[in-house]
From TrEMBL:
Localization of this protein: Membrane
Annotated organism of origin: Actinoplanes aureus
Any one GO MF annotation of this record: potassium:proton antiporter activity
Membrane topology: Multi-pass membrane protein
UniProt name for this protein: Ionic transporter y4hA
Sodium/calcium exchanger membrane region domain segment(s): 38-188, 222-362
Membrane-crossing residue ranges in chain numbering: 12-29, 35-54, 66-90, 102-123, 135-155, 167-186, 223-241, 253-275, 287-311, 317-339, 346-364
The keyword Transmembrane is annotated on this UniProt entry: yes
């Protein structure tokens, strides 16, 4: 292979987001045949890898916890756009799409990303070490916002069914957004040291070792390419969503599985970034990504959906069912016991991955 070809291949993270956006423009609003769905799915996967690369470049430049915050917010903003778009184009099945997607995001982040990060870290160093003050406050915020937005609607009496009245929805949106912004202020300013990665020996890591941070120009280019890649990921995911819905219906699965698939696709960049951070003994960075994504998914999605309900038809079903509440409650209990000590082993990672497996199974077979 000639040096020129190698040079071109090494710059694939630049070309892929542009190519993915071009494919998005060409396929937007069209019914794709099976070969087209396959090509789009492959391009979507490569775009995810490109997004992870550019997110890590930006994170290296700005440092923690800003890097993980940028990726979490960027992914969640586009996730909200995808949910609103599908709700506009959907029928009755879309009334619970926001709930299904947000709940799936919480279970995937708090059990899947968190669990696999702890497992990778513990397998590498025997014990995964992180800051309990920062992780504990993040997990408490996730639990509070999730309960307010996803559990309370099943018990309020102003409206029939698992939904808020307009006043209740507006209040929940303001409180969720306020708690999220308060957490961001604590994470990035007042107690930033609580969210800095630490090694197994307890040493704080403030920068990548033996690697010079990228220049401001490189970081800005990566930020732009990251946004392009994320837009492509979510847009292409929407493009293949009819095939996903047809597959779900054809397999006899509940429609809520569509929300699970959306969450899995959208959270792929964060999952890969978290695992790679854990493999480098930066468990705190992995947990920042996991819990930050869960918090952003609720704290930004619920307010956005509340505003969108001004023109969206039909009710908004937010309240969880009994089975989902049990899983959420069990996740909160196990997660609390995991983060309080500030040290975890492979058992903790296995417990969370087991809860994720239960969630996925019950989503397909309620």
């Amino acid at each position: 292979m000639t040096p020129k070809i190698v040079s071109y291949l090494s710059r694939w993270t630049i070309y892929v987001p542009i190519l993915a956006v071009a494919a998005l423009i060409l396929t937007w609003g069209r019914d794709l045949p099976p070969p087209g769905v396959t090509v789009v799915a492959l391009l979507l996967g490569v775009a995810v890898l490109a997004a992870v690369h550019h997110a890590e470049v930006v994170a290296h430049r700005v440092g923690e916890p800003y890097g993980s915050l940028i990726l979490a917010v960027a992914v969640t903003v586009i996730e909200v756009a995808l949910i609103v778009t599908l709700m506009i184009s959907g029928g009755e099945n879309s009334q619970s799409l926001a709930r299904d997607t947000v709940f799936a995001a919480v279970m995937i982040t708090c059990n899947g990303i968190l669990g696999i990060s702890l497992l990778v870290g513990a397998l590498r160093r025997r014990i995964a070490v992180f800051n309990p003050e920062g992780t504990g406050s993040a997990f408490a915020t996730v639990a509070a916002i999730a309960t307010l937005s996803l559990v309370l609607p099943s018990f309020t009496t102003s409206r029939p069914g698992p939904q808020f009245s307009p006043a209740q929805l507006g209040f929940a949106a303001v409180v969720s957004l306020g708690l999220y912004l308060l957490f961001v202020a604590v994470q990035t300013r007042r107690h930033r040291d609580y969210f800095m990665p630490i090694t197994t020996e307890g040493e704080v890591i403030d920068a990548e070792e033996h690697v010079e941070p990228p220049s401001s120009r490189t970081a800005l280019n990566s930020l732009g390419l990251l946004l392009l890649a994320l837009i492509a990921v979510v847009g292409l995911a929407k493009g293949i969503s009819p095939a996903v819905e047809s597959g779900v219906v054809g397999a006899g699965l509940p429609h809520s599985v569509v929300g699970v698939v959306i969450a899995l696709l959208v959270l792929l960049p964060e999952t890969i970034a978290a695992v790679r951070a854990a493999a480098r003994d930066r468990i705190q960075t992995s947990l920042n990504l996991a819990l930050g994504s869960a918090m952003a998914s609720i704290g930004l999605t619920i307010p956005a959906i509340a505003v969108a309900m001004i023109w969206l038809p039909g009710p908004l079903l937010l309240g969880l069912g009994g089975t989902q509440m049990v899983l959420l409650g069990l996740t909160v209990v196990v997660g609390t016991l995991t983060v309080v000590p500030g040290r975890a082993n492979i058992l903790h990672g296995g417990l969370h991955l087991g809860l994720l497996a239960v969630f996925l199974f019950l989503a397909a077979s309620p």
